[in-house]
Amino acid sequence: MIRIFKYSDIDKSAIFMRSEPPANVEETVAGIIADVHENGDAALVRYAKKFDGAELSALEVTPRELDDALKSVDPCFLEVIEKAAANIKAFHRCQIRSGFVLTKENGVVLGQKILPLHRVGVYVPGGTASYPSTVLMNCIPAKLAGVSEIIVTTPPSRDGRVNPNILAAAKLGGADRIFKSGGAQAVAALAYGTESVPPADKIVGPGNAFVAEAKKQVYGRVAVDMIAGPSEILVIADDTCSAEYVAADMLSQAEHDVLASAVLVTDSAELAEKVGAELEKQLPALPRYDIARASIDNNGKIIVAENLKQAVEISNALAPEHLEICVDNPFDYLDMVRNAGSIFLGKYCPEALGDYFAGPNHTLPTLGTARFSSPLSVDDFVKKSSFTYYTPEALAGVKNDIACFARKEGLEAHARSVTVRFDK
């Protein structure tokens, strides 16, 4: 049963679940990474048998496997994937930036180049569910950024195959190669490379605690998008909102993971009671009942605030991954929101709309990191290089300034690298 609190009575630091990784995860992951680094494909094949129950003769998905998968996908679902991909492309295309050139006096030219990463690894989880939406959300912005090669890794099923829906999404999303590997071992392969898997410049995509720990440990050798925690949703609603809608939206995150957090903040004690009852009514109908039940019982909360302004202040303090503002005039509150991964406005904008279809990315900051980080975007797949050009006359005009600065920092060679050009 979900708990109801007055905001004045709750421990503010315990509103969202802040999970600790399983015992020995750091040591276990370090061992897996070292094994893959040393033994390459042989280690990946061994871990596929150990963790996935799959006997693999080859790690890479073949063109024939890809064609067979596309034929086996429900045509209606394939059409839905195409529609979602079009929406995601349209949104992320607006994020594409070009460099700039700044021309100054004396022929000085300054500028910035926007350069795509060469190779990116996209990790796609398996296990309790498959996520073709994750494939689209990670591959499409990488493709729009101009990434030369997109590598997807995902755990195989026991028969050694990859879920055909994931393969269909990879094809439509622009993936270049797909490998049958999951867990920390896949992250290690993308970081160091193996005989089959080429090393990536960046690794993106969500995963369990072992995947998150592996991304931590390889960071520095490669870039990573973020270290994601359990899913979070915070719903702000008033007494004009349907308790049925609110409960359904909270359960949409609770069914992800027993560690997921679903929180309602409302200025209506009556709505709080109705949502609590509605959760109990809807829970038994869910196929993932056990997961959602544990999430709601252990991490779910309903908080009664004094007013909606305070509700937004609570949300800003928590910096939720997903924020729903379920009121009649949501744009009245949008400018008040400072910290949130993705914001869903109004009573007909459930978070699931963003998960699959609307267009904005669903790879979002968790664990309060929306205070300083952003959703995955085209920007995550590019790097920037600045360039500078000075004429002799332009450098002559500032040589004494540069030499002065360098000598104040005790770096005489810096100073002389400028002045030597004018000694004669």
TrEMBL record:
NCBIfam families xrefs: hisD (TIGR00069)
Requisite cofactors: Zn(2+)
Protein name: Histidinol dehydrogenase
Gene: hisD
InterPro entries cross-referenced by the UniProt entry: Ald_DH/histidinol_DH, Histidinol_DH_CS, Histidinol_DH_monofunct, Hstdl_DH
Residues the entry annotates as binding Zn(2+): 253, 256, 355, 414
E.C. number: 1.1.1.23
UniProt keywords, alphabetically: Amino-acid biosynthesis, Histidine biosynthesis, Metal-binding, NAD, Oxidoreductase, Zinc
Origin: domain of life: Bacteria
Organism: Sporobacter termitidis DSM 10068
PANTHER family: HISTIDINE BIOSYNTHESIS TRIFUNCTIONAL PROTEIN (PTHR21256:SF2), HISTIDINOL DEHYDROGENASE HDH (PTHR21256)
Family: Belongs to the histidinol dehydrogenase family.
EC class: oxidoreductase
